[in-house]
Prior knowledge:
Elements: H1 11-15, H2 18-27, E1 30-33, E2 43-46, H3 49-56, E3 61-62, H4 77-83, H5 94-102, H6 108-113, H7 115-130, E4 134-136, H8 137-142, H9 144-154, H10 161-173, H11 181-207, H12 213-222, H13 229-260, H14 262-270, H15 275-285, E5 291-296, E6 300-302, E7 305-307, E8 312-316, H16 317-320, H17 354-371, E9 376-377, E10 397-399
Parallel strand pairs: 2-8
Antiparallel strand pairs: 1-2, 3-5, 4-10, 5-8, 6-7, 9-10
Helix pairs in contact: 7-9, 7-17, 9-10, 9-13, 10-11, 10-13, 12-13, 13-15, 13-17, 15-17
The structure holds protoporphyrin IX containing FE.
The site of protoporphyrin IX containing FE (HEM) has 24 residues, from helix 13 and helix 17.
Amino acid sequence: MSSTKFDPLAPAVLRDPYPTYAHYREHDAVHWGEPGEPSSEGTWYIFRFNDVVDVLKDPRFGREVHRIKPQPPPEYPLLADIASKWMFFRDPPEHTRLRGLVSKAFTPRVAERMRTRIAWHADQLLGAAQKKNHFDVIADYARLLPTTIIAEIIGAPAEDCAMFLPWSIALAATLEFRQTDEVRRQGAIAVNELLSYLRALAVQRRAAPREDLLTALLQAEDSGASLSDDEVLATIMLLLTAGNDPTEHLIGNSLLALLQHPTQANWLRANPGAIDTASEELLRYDSSVQATFRYALEDVEIHGRHIAAGQHVAIVFGSALRDTSYCAQPDEINLTRHSGALPYGFGIHFCLGMPLARVIGQVAIERALAMLPNMTLTKQTLEWEDRFAVRGLKSLFVDIS
Ligand code: HEM
């Protein structure tokens, strides 16, 4: 058993978490480490692939800790109220009800229909980049593409898309493993502004329906489906909160891996038909979602470790994806292997947006390789976001001349 407490925000772990994960998989696979939000005592970390899957399918682990342990009153009541309407934070039966209505909007067929549109947006952003000598893959491309697509799916007018970016950044930070007071305060401001914006948009869509997600959800609600007005708007907010951030860093982390492995990048340029397996493998290799969390809703024993009811549990996808029980030679990139869908979770909370995220990721990588054939890494010290649930770079400068 390892005596050092795992700290996911230690600088060495932020730079490269994989050797540390390997250590814990080997020596202390169910580990009592540094606390994550909102636990103040400690967090259990689950490092091995088989245990990750077992915990995710075990109903003794869930999200609604308030059912077994009284929680302090929320600091920001509106933020707490909206989050309580997110399927992400609910267990069945509420989870099933909230997810049921919106799941039809996120099928592979619906995502596939967006492919040409996504490529058009990608080409616009890359076209702007081509006019410069070098550009920041994160700020100029990876961050803008998913927000624009998701705002468009929701039904926001094109001229409003720019407003969605700061809202989605502020909200995504509230899902993080550890948060400062400032993060919560910014999250509360974003919820307030976004709710007012969406309420006004809902009035317009009721008066003049359009072919967009907001109209579809409002019409479903009007025809007696099981979501209330506020639940529809909260669900729309969740899509922005949960969707932009991991897709941004899917693009950023994948392009970084290709820039660091130019032979693989050149192979993919020559074999663009392999983009589906390639983008899945790049996500497995350095996943944007490193971890999620649950609470033990009753006492559970795993490998002789006693997890008490109410304790906080981090499920470390980033480690499971590098476990030899998940795939052979996990520290190597193999763009032709079928890497599986574990980066998108497992069980009832399995990523709702996976079909869309896959198409955005494939298009974003394929278009960047095609339009920027001479792209190389600029000399820089890579700086990773100070986060655990989502892993991504603050910036990624490349020369494209
Ligand atoms: C590369 C991009 C993405 C990755 C790696 C990813 C990963 C995940 C994972 C691991 C979960 C499960 C969390 C858990 O079990 O606690 C999840 C849930 C979710 N994702 Fe994604 N996601 C991505 C993109 C998206 C997109 C584009 C959307 C929507 C527009 C989306 C919407 C959601 C929602 C709504 C949930 C909660 C589902 C539930 O609680 O039932 N995600 N995602």
